[in-house]
Amino acid sequence: METINFLITGVGGQGTVLASEIMAAVGLAAGYDVKKSDLLGLSVRGGAVLGHVRWGETVYSPIVPEGRVDYLVAFEQLEALRHLGQVKSSGTILVNQQKIYPVLVSSGLAEYPSDEVIETSLNRTAKAIYKIPAVDLALGIGNSKVLNIVLLGALSSLFDIEAAVWEKVLEERVPKKFTELNIQAFREGRNWMKGK
Amino acid sequence: MKKLMTGNEALARGAYEAGVKAATGYPGTPSSEILENIVQYKEIYAEWSTNEKTATEAAIGAAYAGRRAITTMKQVGMNVAADAFFFAVYTGMRAGLMIIVADDPGMFSSQNEQDNRHYAPFAKMPMLEPADSQEAKDFVKIAMEMSEEWDVPVLYRTCMRVAHSASPVELGERNWDDEKIPEKWVRNQEKYVCSAMFAQKKRPMIEERLIKLVETSNKIAINRLEWGDRKLGIIASGPVYHYAREIFPDATFLKLGMTYPLPEGLIRELAAGVEKVMVIEELDPFIEQQVKAMGIDCIGKDIFPRYGELLTGDIEKACAKAGIIPWEKVAEQRALTPQGLPGRSPVLCPGCPHRSTFFNLAKIKDLIIVSDIGCYNLGALAPFHATDFMGSMGAGFGVAHGFEIGGIEKTGQKIIGIVGDSTFFHNGVTPLLNMVHNGSNVTLMVLDNSTTAMTGHQDHPGTENTLEGKGKRVDIEKLVRAIGVEHVLKANAFDVKSVDAAIKEGLNHEGLSFIIVEGPCFFVGKNTKPAFTVTQDCNGCGTCFKLGCSAIARSEIVDEKTGRKKSSIDPVLCVGCTICAQVCPRKAIVSTQAA
Ligand SMILES: Cc1ncc(C[n+]2csc(CCOP(=O)(O)OP(=O)(O)O)c2C)c(N)n1
């Protein structure tokens, strides 16, 4: 069996770390060997973050080898572009339709890539691309913070693992008073993928 | 059932299972989470010490008292701790002792890329290197037993990828009598007094022990020959073993868990059984040189780089270039990322107390800003660029004095030395003593944000709390006055003018002056006030951009008179610290509460 490689990219504060934790735990619950690695930028907030998750029969390296990403899960558009070179031509990209300007851009020292550049870059990388309005979907159920779980819901629909397995892991990982909100967010993302 | 744990979580668990009773350390990426995880085990005493030397001495003392002890540090911390663990190799202890160091190949968060494996032969102590979380846990017990059997501290070398990666771990129990009182101490000067007289007598034993440890290294289960295809025999340790296994699933491997002293017998057995030996190791040719000194030829740094990480892709490319694997096996390199993407470099957080200092310093000409390590080092980056030097903890004061005795002030330039509060306690007090005693004239500054922010907000002697609970807070002002500094100034970090005034007064003062800039890190108080907003009076002058705050951005609205884009403030990111409102020349930034 080939190892399944995920790369999770985003900006500090978006909840990528919890997302990769849940993905690793789901892999374990589904009977895979699992490894995971997080690389956090220097700053507590606002820096780029990168997570590697791997599911397989025997997983050696905790880091996805260069150029071998099967699923790029990007929480932010610029951070999606930064890692396109890592994606296999047979790979899948899930990208949250959010833009977070780095300080260089907000202070006028650099330009954020245009929508055309984003579009063409994504399209030439992978066959399957899902542009997910995760912030809107999260706001729809009342809290933009659960955008990470919306994205996980969307991702979950691409695998044969039962939703119940994901939801059980979710329940174990999030504070009790937010369980319902998170389950709702997960289903919101999963449903959005139907018919896509 | 197996539990998914990071290397640092697993190491902490390992300390629990192995009966460790005392754990000390000084924070530093990627080691900090070890102690932060140990705190959950009530059976273990844990503390953040003032620096790595103090931490190591405390752990050594605990092992003298008879309790298993560990100390943790980041890679450069070894240099600070070295004076302590070198003598412990001579004395031995009454219980197991582990010196844990987390190296940083790739320099993700460090000022150099030193390879701390060299400290093992340098100090003459055995060394273990875990490759994943299971080993990170299991090796603690092995190290403790080895330390007690050979009466020597064991160097436990981990690294960023082991520390911050997670993999499944089989848990064990703590079989330890925690109520047991240590045995009474019996004076033993020959063993514990490290005077030359006694130390000389021990010298031959230190060498003999290392020779005997080679036999242990040959026999220990964590050093194992994994026979496979006989063309290539690969020697690897730590996570590099996993990166290499990925490319060579069928090759013969000598997987090393104990990397000093090396298992000479196993290495010879490997060399005899394969056509070619290859050593794959990150950083220096530590293993390779020893293998070659055994008279065994091997592939090594002739094809692999001596710096940076050696991830699967790096190994793959080096091997393809050397003709060891075909290029077809290397992942397709696709240049898909558009050129010139804006970087997302770290910036001071919204609400950061360091902002006012660097906003003011950036405006002063002919000032040599001798700074130090911590979040305030972001003052070196855009938009401030207000730093001339940063080197090692405490050097912000030590090197400032050096500039002075080097006579730089004759050029008309002034000197200011800056350290953070945790850095001040770590290694800033001794250079201050030196300057007071030797009659220095420079201006010094402590940026007191009530925490060790950069490494994840740990407590230090200047805070109310300790790792385990309440402590006694050391008052920086009283300490500095007691040392003999007469001109002490205080400024409020959230009052831009008060910081400006203190800096100017300090620089104009004849003689040593000491400025304490006080204001808690946002993450200490989490004191979010209503956000600020930009009124129509903004004419796009751009003063607020000089604060480098990620909550402030250029809007698309153009001021009719100046033709410049006006500012805007993100209400989600803004925490209401007021600094931008203070510096706005047109008073065009106001609280949303007032607006
Ligand atoms: C010898 C050594 N130990 C540890 C570190 C890791 N480290 C980098 S900055 C820092 C502390 C910074 O704290 P402080 O001086 O209070 O500044 P702040 O980040 O709070 O602004 C530490 C522990 C290091 N670089 N060198």
Automatic annotation (TrEMBL), chain A:
Keyword flag GTP-binding: no
Keywords: Oxidoreductase, Pyruvate
Keyword Oxidoreductase annotated: yes
All residue ranges annotated as the Pyruvate/ketoisovalerate oxidoreductase catalytic domain in the record: 12-190
GO MF annotations in UniProt: oxidoreductase activity, acting on the aldehyde or oxo group of donors
InterPro entries in the record: IorB_Oxidoreductase, Pyrv/ketoisovalerate_OxRed_cat, Pyrv_flavodox_OxRed_cen
Pfam families named among the record's database cross-references: POR
PANTHER family on file: INDOLEPYRUVATE OXIDOREDUCTASE SUBUNIT IORB
Name of the protein described by the UniProt record: Pyruvate:ferredoxin oxidoreductase
From TrEMBL, chain B:
Manner of cofactor binding, per the entry note: Binds 2 [4Fe-4S] clusters. In this family the first cluster has a non-standard and varying [4Fe-4S] binding motif CX(2)CX(2)CX(4-5)CP.
Reaction it catalyzes: indole-3-pyruvate + 2 oxidized [2Fe-2S]-[ferredoxin] + CoA = (indol-3-yl)acetyl-CoA + 2 reduced [2Fe-2S]-[ferredoxin] + CO2 + H(+)
EC primary class: oxidoreductase
Top-level taxon: Bacteria
Cofactor(s) it depends on: [4Fe-4S] cluster
Positions with a binding annotation for [4Fe-4S] cluster 1: C538, C541, C544, C584
EC number: 1.2.7.8
Domain 4Fe-4S ferredoxin-type, chain residue ranges per copy: 565-594
InterPro entries linked: 4Fe4S_Fe-S-bd (IPR017896), 4Fe4S_Fe_S_CS (IPR017900), HACL1-like (IPR045025), IorA (IPR017721), Pyrv_Fd/Flavodoxin_OxRdtase_N (IPR002880), THDP-binding (IPR029061), TPP_enzyme_TPP-bd (IPR011766), Transketo_C/PFOR_II (IPR009014)
UniProt binding sites for [4Fe-4S] cluster 2: C549, C574, C577, C580
Single GO MF descriptor: 4 iron, 4 sulfur cluster binding
Pfam families, alphabetized: Fer4, POR_N, TPP_enzyme_C
UniProt KW keywords: 4Fe-4S, Electron transport, Iron, Iron-sulfur, Metal-binding, Oxidoreductase, Pyruvate, Transport
Subunit structure: Heterodimer of the IorA and IorB subunits.
Function: Catalyzes the ferredoxin-dependent oxidative decarboxylation of arylpyruvates.
Protein name: Indolepyruvate oxidoreductase subunit IorA
Gene source species: Flexilinea flocculi
